Every structure is written in structure tokens, then in C-alpha cells.
Amino acid sequence: MTTAPTPLHTALSLAASGVPVLPLRRGKVPFGNCRACKGNACGGRPNMKTPGTCGCSGVCHAWAAATTEPAVIASSPWAAAWRQAVCVGYHPGGAGLTVVDLDDAAAVAWAREALPATRTVPTTRGEHWIYQGTMRSVNDVRDGVDIKSLMSYARWLGPGTGTMTALPDAVRALAVKKPSTVRSARPVATVPALAGGGECRHRTPVYLERGVAMAEQRITEARSAVHTTVYRTFLAVLSTHGRCGCLTDTHVTRLFTAAQAKGESPRHCTDAWTNARTALGM
Fold first, then answer.
1. What is the pLDDT of residue 61?
2. Whether the predicted model's global pTM rises above the 0.70 cut
3. Pairing relation of β-strands 138-142 and 145-148?
């Protein structure tokens, strides 16, 4: 009689192949932050390559806790979580992947007509379509369809079948345009528009361009504490321009490029960005 692998065994196997993993508890959701990290009181983990940067070595900060380090996965702080885990989660973006989560038969039928074939994994009610490449994660891009990639997690349901193909423009387009019957997906770093219907001054091209250029310069000129400088710069940009929808993927890419030129990894950038959004309540 063959014994099914435990979540910990599955996690270690995935990590060995370069897939960042984390335990999921009942409800298929991440474990809550520890007391020291509750409410992001620790300031987040801007450097996820060094476990415990926030002062905690536990399974904190949801998707950002995902790791490929076997010593962390099997460590004592994670042990209790694995004993309670009902399944394994993973960070698609950290593995260079994008998951199109099709929640029901209607969504699957739509994908078969609208999207290029790729590797598929059956779920309880639908399918996961997995593409090679990353993008920002967006929920409800249309009825029954979510996109999970950067700054998100997905449930591991097996390797799937079929040949994985490159992330197509048809999937990227879903993040910026949706059928009118579904509420509009928010662009990167967007929160509800200003009340009162007045024109947003941040949409003035010169004002926005100056702000982004100054942020790029601040990062470029950093001589020490680069992690902190990147985080604080992202925080400043979001606090000024993040509440009116004026930031676009192009602006965010410029900031990430400046940070990576100073030695930050793409993952460091996404962690700092999401931590800044969390700190501002976005």
C-alpha cells in the first residue's frame, strides 16, 4: 500500500525544483502572522532571501513567506504549521510562472476558446492553466477567472498535463481590460479615486513624471541601506500617487529597474512594493 506524501515532503520536493512553497491551513489559506508581525507591525520582510529579516523566522506575511530553502522549510518555527497544514501553497511569480485560475466549467470553456493551450491542472471545480512568465496578479478579471503570479499564492495540485507555453499577450491583456459586466480591475498601485469627482492633479503628466524621476534618482544615488531606501521610496511614491490611479505598469517598471540596478532582485522589489502598499492600507 502506497502512503501519500505529507505536505512537508511535497514542499521539500517542490523547493528542490526551484518552486517557493508555504504551508496552507484549513480553508486553503496561509497561516496568520505571529504576534510580532501582526498588522505588519514589523514593517514587513523586504529581504525574503534572509529568513527572519523582520525579526521573525516563522511562516509570516502570507505569499511572501514562500521559500525554496530546505533548512527554513524543515525548521522548528515552521514545524507546527506543517503539522496543521492541509495542503501546500506556492508563489507562482517566484517560480517564474503565471496561473490562470478558472473557477468553473464556464470559465474553462471560455479559456479553451480564448487562450493558447498550455499545461493544465484540474481543480475541485475547474482548472489551473499554467504559463511560463510572470505578471501582476489580479482577481476577477472576468467571471470565474483570477490571475495568480507576482505577490500571490496558488494551491499546489500536482504537475498537471500538457506542454507549458510562454505567457501570451491575451492573458496580460486581462489585467487591464475586462468585460463591462465585471467590475474594473485596478491598475498597479491603484486605490479608489478621490471623492467629489474633481480632476486629479496627479494625472498632470509633468507632476507625475517629476515624482517618478525623483524617486528613480533617490534609489540610484543610494550608497548604503539600499533595501531601506527602496522601501521608503516606494512608500513615498505610493503615498503621493497611489490613491488616484495615475500610476501605470510603466511607472512601476521604471522604479523596479532602478532598484535592480542597485543590486535588488525582482523578488526584493515586489516584496518592498507590497509592504509599502500594506503600510498605507492599500
1. 84
2. no
3. antiparallel
